[in-house]
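Sequence only, no structure available. Ideas?
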Amino acid sequence: MTTDRTSSAKQAREALGSRLRNIRKGASLTARALASATGQHFTRVSKIENGVQTPTERDIHTWCQVCRAESEITELTATLRTIESAYVEFRRQSRAGMKQVLGAHTLARYKSTDVFRIYEHNVIPGLFQTAEYTAAMLSFWIKFLGLPNDLDDAVATRMERQRILYRGGKRFVVVLEEQALNTWFGTAEIQAGQLDRLLAVMSLPNVSFGIIPMRVERPAVGSAGFWVFDDTLVALETPTASIEVTRPNELALYARMFEALKSSAVYGSSARKLITDALDS
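Reply:
I predicted one. Tokens follow.
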């Protein structure tokens, strides 16, 4: 799977322009009338509406104020901020090695987040990985993406982030597919050690750990793993890019999806049995 960052930004810019056009038309204003009211040339209004030119935050504020659509400002501003930053290409980010491939998963982001909502379908979340499991997984990505081999540093960086688990005031709500318990990264011994680690972290008082059994009726199926940081950011990853979502309406959809997935999970002794069954197998 590949991500064309230029094309994605262009499509997002066009979508933003279309929304601004609809707001203008909803206010019964011509492009010339809006341009006059906002102090710009009418051709610039046309370029913005057609996705040729990206508006500034000031443009959005004045546009919505003139059109009496102030309630749209927050949503449109969030959209603007994601146009050029929604896709962070791994290759560009990783020129200095895998240690730099973090996307939204920076130590600063972890420190500023109070509630983590985490859904993974085929991998153990990084916060709960053993060093051996992380090393096995990153070894593949270093080779696959052709990155400088800084495996030890990359693993150390990810282990450092796990200290956040023991920091006061943090809460971790995790939903894991049973498939992740049976997807090996490395040897059987590495997988067994990882499952033992899950049993340990499940007992932490600030961790809610649910597992969705493979054979269960469910209202939703997640197409990709994703992390929700408070109510401000959703992060998910493709093989070549880290995607960060900040638009309020999209954040709300991810929150709804998380709750739907969470409703299918089992907890406590039932979740532990799924892990011990995977260990036994």
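The chain has a mean pLDDT of 87.
Hope that gets you unstuck.
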